[in-house]
Prior knowledge:
By secondary structure, this protein is an alpha/beta fold. The chain has nine helices and nine strands. The protein has a single domain (2-246), classed as P-loop containing nucleotide triphosphate hydrolases (Rossmann fold, 3-Layer(aba) Sandwich). The chain has a seven-stranded parallel β-sheet, with helices on both faces.
Amino acid sequence: MHVLVFANEKGGTGKSTTAVHAAIALAFKGARVACFDLDHRQRTMGRYLDNRRETIRRTGRDLPMPVYETHDGESMDYFSSTLERLGENADFLVIDTPGRDDKFARISVTNADTLVTPMNDSFVDFDLIGQVDPETFRVSRPSFYSEMIWESRKRRAKADGESIDWVVLRNRMQHIEARNMKRVSEAIDQLSKRVGFRVISGLSERVIYRELFPQGLTMLDAGEFGAMGLSHVAARQELREMMSGLALPEVALPLFA
């Protein structure tokens, strides 16, 4: 089983939407996928998949559907037993963590095979992983969060000799403020060399993602929401490129026709 964890202590980065799309993309490929939503307050992943299950029931359509659970936010026993149960028959376990510091998220990060940190192209979001000089915009030091991930990777290597592939996912990229985006991009590249993460492109800011949520659909369920416009085609291509960039086991080739 490959553990894929989506973690970011700041909200508003498209983390849960990206996690659901990754899970459904893997299920479309034929993988056995399990999902664990650790954010018992917002429960975005859980509600997304609730909506998908209801769409399957209501329409009778055969859509790829992961098994999934939502944590109660408190019980270590429930956390451990659910992880064990979800992992029994899964090729991939996709974990969506809260947008805040959380002890169960920290445990999940340490046990991740692939750790994905979505962020928007702004220094507000960059501040989660690093700090920059206010005049030169060069990286001055990694953030507390980066140091936490660094320690988690060391603990994992010491525990079982495995490594955590940390991926910073640039989500909701806009084609405005070109100079600011260039500065953010340069800062991310500088920091990646210091703390050892990979950088890939994620999903753009598109209305279609919000429209699909009530039915639990994704960009892969094209036949379920009618004809595809150019924006839909572009969104599917973004998803193809994101999944390719994650370089998950046996999912390195393009997934969709």
